[in-house]
Amino acid sequence: MFGFFKKYTRKKALGDARNTASACFPNLKEIRSIGFIYNIQNGGFGAELEKIGNFLRERGIPFSGILIESKKRILDKLIVGDPVKKESEGITVAEKLKGEGYEILSRKEINWAGIPRLQRHRSFMEREYDLFISFNDTGDFTSDYIAGRVNAKFVTGMRNFSGHPYTLVMEGENRTLLSYDDYLKQIFHYLDIINRNATGE
Fold first, then answer.
1. C-alpha dist (Å) from residue 29 to 21, 65, 197
2. How far apart are CA 101 and CA 99, in angstroms?
3. Which residues, listed in sequence order, are joined to residue 135 by a DSSP beta bridge?
4. Residues 6+ apart with CB under 8 A from 133
5. Whole-structure pTM value
6. Tens digit of pLDDT for each residue in 44-77?
7. Which residues pair with 27 in a beta bridge?
8. What are the phi and psi torsion angles at 127 (to 5°)?
9. CA atoms of 18 and 146, how far apart (whole Å)
10. Count of CA atoms in the C-beta half-sphere (13 A) of 5
């Protein structure tokens, strides 16, 4: 019974949250802002997040990211410094990420149904993005919910499902999930093709 109620609550919340702004395929030459959402599942996220940041930085487009803490206190660990010098940076993983400009949505800000309390992240949610990228390959409801509420002209997702909040879903052959690297490359590749067709280049 609780499972049914949870599913009903999520379906209604996602429908209410869906971004209803008229979608338009952005011209790659005119993209001035990119936002993304990334779900932190375990401690091995650092290298992946760095790859995403490097990919976007190479294109010279300012970006902002919001990171979801999927497990309590996963980001509260102290960062260990140089073991040879026996030094520690003395800050937590969360503090380091915030210092790099990322928003952190902590587990305690997410209710039993997966609906986040976003008051503390109002500036991120209200900022206008030409392109918003959801790195949600696990079916995380909170990520889908936020993707449906951001102030974005164009929103991409990794999974196609009924009622999804995305302008464009990028999947592999036979609806397989793409790696994050391939997902990013495909987004920019298809936007480039669309723009070329639109301008007759």
1. 21, 21, 14
2. 5
3. 38
4. 34, 35, 36, 37, 155, 156, 184, 187
5. 0.86
6. 788 899 999 999 999 999 999 999 998 888 888 8
7. none
8. -65, 140
9. 9
10. 3
